[in-house]
User: Fold this.
Amino acid sequence: MPVFVAVDGPCCAPNDDSRGPGGDPAPAAAPERAGEGAALVTPDLVELAGGEFTMGTDGDYGYVIDGEGPAHRVELSPFAISRFAVTNAQFAAFAEATGYRTEAERYGASFVFFGFLPGGGDPARAVPAAPWWQEVEGADWAHPEGPGSEWTERADHPVVHVSWEDALAFCAWTGTRLPSEAEWEYAARGGLEGCRFPWGEELEPGGEHRMNVWQGTFPSENTAADGHVGTAPVGAFPPNGHGLHNMTGNVWEWVADRFDRNFYASAPAEDPVAAGGEGPAVMRGGSYLCHASYCNRYRVDARSSNATDGTTGNLGFRVVTDLTG
Assistant:
């Protein structure tokens, strides 16, 4: 049985405190909604009826560290959520149409897993608390591992190296929004109650891989037993009961909420969202770097956080819209 190591730091994604001396980039103006042009890249949306479900957990890995509990009943209004995470191709269309430059582009660097860099990269650029992360000059959504890597080689993969603010800009242009944390978890559960994964309780039912996570010994050896090293196409694995793909594994996904370890204890019962204020934002779902030996966050009830200007090679997003009538 694996030993879960509780890590309260940048194991899943570095934050702005891990950046070098380059300083904060100037803020980018949010693009206005583009109407029909935006409709060309608006993600495929699945309508969900909403209703009541149990959110969170009463005693899993991150109950204290990540504020995953207490388990509590939540009532949600109807909404529609994208079947897949936003892809590189969709984000490229947005960037081309609006001229938007992401925070990583304006800063001039982002964080990349060292195993993707020639010779393991430069240890001097590593994050001390998580040395598998290195700050790479020129890494951004269009150049996922820095100069010489191109998004066009993975057009149907989830866009990465986008901050929370970048995700909000895409949403503003497409007339969508980020899901609340409660909406994300309701969608991820796929209609199942009390299960750890979108398909049930077993990580690999019948020996079948259902998501893209680290296989082997982290961080030195990835056997790619699930078929992927790094990101996978957004539709690489079968959907959950709601028809949604890769709600766990592949890349972390930004949600609308600000991170608060104590929010679940006092959250409203109807359409809760921890909005407003300062501080980091919540990310959900785990990524291709998650492994049971140090991070058990690839569950539907798991949560973590990152600074709103944080950008990494394992963090993307999906979108939602409200349903009325």
